[in-house]
Amino acid sequence: MKRHSFAIYDASAGSGKTYALVKEYLKIILSAKQNDAYRNILAITFTNKAVHEMKSRIVTNLSEFAKDNPTEKSADLMQDIATDINLSLYEIKQKSKSIIKHIIHNYAAFDISTIDKFTHKVIRAFAHDLNLPMTFEVTLDTENLLIEAVDALIAQAGEDETLTKLLVDFTMEKTDDDKSWDISREILETGRLILNENNREEITHFHDKTISEFLEIKKKIQEACKGLGDECAEGGTSILSLIDSNGIDHKSFSRETFPNHIKSIKENRFNPKNKMFHEVEDIAINKTAKDRAIIEGIIPELLSSLGKIYENYQKIGFYTAFLKNITPLSLLNTVSHELSKIQKEQNILSIAEFNAIIHEQIQNQPAPFIYERLGERYKHFFIDEFQDTSEMQWQNLIPLIDNALSSEDLQGERGSLMIVGDPKQSIYRWRGGKAEQFIELSKDLNPFNNPDKHLEHLDKNYRSYSQIIDFNNDFFKMLSGEFENADYKDLYENHSHQKSNDKTGGYVNISFIPKIESSDPEVSGEDALDKTELFVLATLNTIQDVLRQGFQYRDIVILTRKRGQGIAIANYLTEQNIPLLSSETLMIANATEVRLIISFLRYLKNSNDLESKANFLQYIARNIQEELPVHDFIAKGMELKIESEFEQWLVAFSTDASGLLSFQNIRKKSLYEAVEIIISKFINPKKNNAYIQYFLDIVLERDIRNQAGISDFLNYWDKNSEKFSIPSPEGDNAVRIMTIHKSKGLEFPVVIMPFAEEDYSKKPRNKLWLNADEVDFGLPKVLIDNNSSVEGYGEDASVVYNEKKQEELLDNINVLYVALTRAEEQLYVISSMNLSSKGEVSKNNMATFFINYLENYSDFNVDKFEYEFGNPSKLSSESKAIEKPQNIQLVKESLNPKNIKIAQREALMWGTHQQKAIEYGNVLHEILSFIKTKNDVPLAIQKAIENGLITISQEEIVRQTIGEIVNHYELEIYFSEGNRILNEQTIIQKQGQIVKPDRMVLTNNNEVLLLDYKTGIHNQKYQLQLENYQSAIEKMGYKVSKKALIYIGETINIVNL
Question: d(Cα 4, Cα 27) in Å, to the nearest integer?
């Protein structure tokens, strides 16, 4: 079966895309002549979990193929592959045995990785060209870096005059608009543009602009706005004069609306939200007006003058919108500079900059050069979850892939690319992943020179039962009518329908929480709380219904759009004793032991912090002591104000038996040691858990990287504690709560989706880039806030605004698609009707989608709150209980640091006799490289001790041996003063070869004395080596007058040549 050079698999949810990828991968490695074909394959996916799944599936299948009796699933796949690549089952079995053995011995070359890991690999390869230190570390914490950069920028106020004026003016503008004077939020928001590759092209226009130039542009726009405003007021005056000069009574106009509108223009009170007059019919005249004919005669002139005024107001609106963003925009270069400075100081590189760095570096490099740097030669490429691959990541891969697809190997075979994705699951636009990229490739676009391109639709759903597949087919086909964009409409109209598998049945339930009676259509804060309570109560009832059907807690997942909704559900279900697993329940900041450590550290930082003191006393009261009630114990501890008395009292409740406790001593320790002491003193070793282990890892990393003290760590913890949670344990029988974004790629027997009533119009909108007139602005692009006013800024602006609106709608419907396709057997949607007082359905609301569906496919009634499709009885067989992972026991014995000796070199293991002479010789060789004349010996030995080459106890023997060498009568000339000494100096010869003699002594009469140190016994090859050195030196115009070899071992041996 022919393999296409470029194959695109459009794979809807649950259609077996990983199976398709694994099958194609196995076909390549099994049909190859050699056993290491996997070395030439690069498979890229989106998450570490997906990497693990793909690797384990490939290895598992190869292992099964190698067995006499593979599992049924593997046997079927084996048969499929055998048919496709024309090999017998026996040949596949033998080949699999060889490949699996090869992979085990060369696992690092088995290259399946995330796109970020591959990018990291490329950056490491080009580190020198990019002027990056080879030891740079990668940071994922781009947000905190940015905050640090903005803080550093604001801290410069008062030093830089231009910057100070800009910041002060910006603060005043914000207070004039009745907004918070804190300007850091706006600067931070605009600063995020630097790290988001979606804005990369636009930002390049501002690279060469200084703050002063921006201030000039700002002044120019402000003057233009004033000029246009004056022009509009004059225009209003002219229109009123025209009406008055024709003797027209203002009352002749219906309610005097038109003349009042003109007066508002004349007096600079124009509001674009008020009624505007564009057509003849818009100007209403009273039926009884005597001057009707005169008015009708001048209407064309009135509308023409008004049209020009409206155009001016459009410009004013546009200019004003840009003025709101010009200050943060003018600081982009400064923020970018601060960001670079911080990264350089900390020797780190933000992961957000990876793609841009590579983009600049490899776009003009030939592919073979990049491969050479990587040390790899990839021939076949696989990209999973392509819809999540950003535009820049894709552009970075194209040169490598094009090279593989265009060139042939010695066997006449070309490379291949297989991409798998689903634009309906594209939910990462904010980080560069765009559905449009996949859609274009699915049509006519081919970025490669090789024209062999093939598109395949995987449209059979293997995950879900038929009822869920039917519901999703109908629901998303209906939603295709929401789109105006032809591509988006086609995506859901023609590419969302899936064929069923042999699992018939299943159950879908759409329910609505009861309406909250409220006179105010806008729900008040108190009612909003009631609404949340209704959603969590409905969720609890749904869980109980599902359990009654025979499902386990572990079969259920609750999906929410926002993290806060998940927290509300987690809190309520915990109160109801429902076992849970969620990012919140797994957050290490919520673990009681971690809270104890943090409270203790806060107290160590400030012994007057009574809240922290009470917090750690509460932990001891509840978990260690048993004598007093909790409150009494805390009160007793709080009474002890003198630290030494408090220590003496507290030591009685310590979990270790040392009977010692000194806060002052703990404060003197490194951060990691301090935390370890707190754990040993107050946390029972039997309570060893993953939270403490993970916390210790965080502390250690912070301690090593930043040499952090307690205060620095607590600041870091306050900003970042919510980011850390332990991985979810597989074996627990508990309900899972996660956001829809986290659920992508997963599947669950039962999915419950509460809060299905998101108001899409209230979403925080991204800013918009609009084209600008370079003559007016001095800029080709301007940044404005995204709101409905943009439509009034002219035709181009209206197009951009509506494009953005369609993109947002696609992203929202995609999130809904991901949520509703996670379910295998049962799907529960809990929504709210959100009807207006007139009983009308809201626009721009997720709930409206479900109501429209029920109107089309059921008997929707505002008084009916639950709709069922299918039978709720459990159909699937009992899922196998997953074995709980074994806990690794804590090592209770602690080592005394004084008993630990670190051997940095084998020289410190001189007790092993066979190593003794050689190692001793190597160490002396290194020490001799520090010595130029006899006077340098003491300093060289000191340096050797500091560098860990030798210990203090070995100092005397080393000093004696070096003394023998430098004072030896045959070698004295080599170490005397007055000559130029070159130790281990590299000589590059004409042919490109490199030589490095141990010691060259240049005398005043341009003669060279050559010395080389060796270990062991005399060998002829060393003599030839020295002659080679002599030849290289003499070609440079020097004369070698003396050369010698010194053999250093238990005795010193000198061979003059």
Answer: 13
State whether the Cα torsion 539-540-543-544 is positive or negative.
Answer: negative
Element (H, E) at 748: strand 748-753
Q: Measure the CA–CA gap between 327 and 322, rounded to whole angstroms.
A: 9
User: How far is 536 from 517, CA to CA, in rounded Å?
Assistant: 19
- pLDDT above 80 (res 294): yes
DSSP letter at 442? H
Say if residues 247 and 291 touch (Cβ distance below 8 Å).
yes
Query: What gap in Å lies between CA 356 and CA 60, rounded to an integer?
Result: 37
- Contact indicator for 500, 461 with CB cutoff of 8 Å: yes
Up-side HSE of residue 194: CA atoms within 13 Å toward CB? 29
- How does DSSP assign 407-422, residue by residue? -B-TTS-B-EEEEEE-
Average pLDDT over residues 430-438: 86
CB under 8 Å to 476, separation ≥6 — which residues? Answer: 424, 492, 496, 813, 817
Predicted confidence band at 912 (pLDDT cuts at 50, 70, 90)?
A: very low
- The pLDDT-based confidence of 160 (bands split at 50, 70, 90) is confident
Distance of alpha carbon 542 from alpha carbon 569, whole angstroms: 13
Strand intervals (E) in 858-986 = 866-870, 980-983
**All residues at 6 or more sequence positions from 245 whose CB lies less than 8 Å from its CB, including other chains:** none
Q: What is the dihedral of CA 250, 256, 259, 264, to 10 degrees?
A: 140
Q: What are phi and psi of 508, to 5 degrees?
A: -125, 135
CB–CB of 373/130 below 8 Å? Answer: no
Helix, strand, coil fractions of the chain, as percent rounded to 5: 55, 10, 30
Q: Is the pLDDT of residue 627 over 80?
A: yes
Q: Which pLDDT value is given to residue 136?
A: 78
The reported pTM is 0.77
- Distance CA(786)–CA(795), nearest Å, equals 15
Give me 18's structure tokens. 């990983």
- Crossing angle, helix 115-125 and helix 367-374, to 10 degrees? 90
Strand partners, 867: 510
What does the DSSP 8-state code read for residue 828? E
Task: Kindly give, in sequence order, each residue whose CB lies less than 8 Å from that of residue 783, ignoring residues fewer than 6 positions away.
Answer: 190, 193, 202, 322, 325, 329, 767, 768, 769
**CA gap 263, 163 in Å, rounded:** 41
- Measure Cα distances from 1030 to 724, 901, 1013 in Å: 62, 44, 15
Tokens of 798: 């209206």
Contact assessment for residue 337 and residue 206, using Cβ atoms and an 8 Å cutoff: no
Q: Are 561 and 845 in contact (CB under 8 A)?
A: no
Task: Decide if 221 contacts 777 (C-beta within 8 A).
Answer: yes
In 391-465, which ranges are continuous DSSP H helix? 391-406, 435-442
How many C-beta neighbours within 10 Å does residue 458 have? 19
Q: Which two tokens stand for residue 548?
A: 């009654």
Q: How many Å apart are CA 100 and CA 93, to the nearest integer?
A: 11
* Alpha carbons 385 and 17: distance in angstroms, whole number: 9
Distance between CA atoms of 820 and 553, rounded to whole angstroms? 19
Strands 735-739 and 748-753: unpaired
The string of pLDDT tens digits covering residues 416-426 is 999 999 999 99
C-alpha–C-alpha distance, residues 150 and 1056, integer Å: 67
* Distance of alpha carbon 495 from alpha carbon 421, whole angstroms: 13
Nearest to 546 by CA among 873, 85, 992, 328: 873
- Inter-residue contact 351 to 196 (CB < 8 Å): no
| C-alpha to C-alpha distances, 50 to 58, 294, 747, nearest whole angstrom | 12, 76, 13
CA distance 809 to 815: 10
Task: Collect contacts of 339-346 with beta carbons under 8 A, ≥24 apart.
Answer: 339/145, 339/146, 339/149, 339/191, 339/194, 341/152, 342/145, 342/148, 342/149, 342/152, 343/145, 346/705
